[in-house]
Design goal:
InterPro entries: Leu-rich_rpt, LRR_dom_sf, LRR_N_plant-typ, PGIP. By secondary structure, the chain is α/β, with parallel strands linked by helices. The protein has helices at 5-16, 21-31, 44-55; strands at 57-60, 80-83, 88-95, 105-108, 121-125, 128-132, 146-148, 153-156, 170-172, 177-178. The protein has a five-stranded mixed sheet with strand order 1-4-6-8-10. The chain has a five-stranded mixed sheet with strand order 2-3-5-7-9, covered by helices on one side.
């Protein structure tokens, strides 16, 4: 049974909320009719973007980034979900495991995340020490539907460039140190719930 690429992307977003990447990969395989063919390896562009994020993290007590080794980010990299047919990253979900008071990442959000052009879900939640500004480069994520940057130390204004995310449906920036007014450009995101 063949599923359309769009349906696979939607399925990948739903599976990104699952607790384990291995479970997500198994469910995608099952959704493809049990097809046991290996997925294509991660796109070199996506791998470079993820490694750019990793380079901006000075401390990781969550253990998540310790899994980010080897050439295939679509394999066993925790928090990374890829489209099984294309080998492109469609979701990045990084959440501190309990107890959240003892697990965090310390560093900055890298503008390299703007290079994940097929990404539909971006979650960096409860990392406590991820700081700096929200990168304006995220405006390049034309397919992005979910953006959750909750429970971090992000500061500065919300960039008006996020108003260019026309597919965005869910946005949460709670629990940060952001300041200023919400940019009027966000009003142009008509599907925002």
């Amino acid at each position: 049974m063949q599923l359309s690429a769009r349906l696979l992307c939607v399925l990948a977003i739903l599976l990104a909320a699952q607790p384990s990447h291995a479970d997500s990969a198994a469910a995608i395989g099952a959704a493809r009719g049990g097809d046991d063919r290996p997925s294509p390896p991660c796109s070199p562009v996506d791998r470079a973007a993820l490694l750019g994020f990793k380079a901006g993290v000075a401390v990781d007590t969550t253990g998540i980034l310790a899994t980010w080794t080897g050439g295939d980010c679509c394999g066993a990299w925790e928090g990374v979900t890829c489209d099984a047919a294309m080998g492109r990253v469609v979701a990045l979900q990084l959440e501190a495991p309990p107890p959240k008071s003892r697990h965090c990442m310390q560093g900055m959000l890298s503008p390299s995340l703007g290079g994940l052009e097929f990404q539909e879900s971006l979650v960096v939640r409860d990392m406590a020490r991820i700081g700096g500004a929200i990168p304006a480069a995220l405006a390049r994520l034309a397919r992005l539907r979910q953006l959750y940057f909750e429970g971090n130390m992000l500061s500065g204004p919300v960039p008006g460039s996020l108003g260019g995310l026309r597919s965005l449906q869910y946005l949460s920036l709670a629990g940060n140190r952001l300041d200023g007014q919400l940019p009027p450009e966000l009003g142009a995101v008509s599907d925002l719930e």
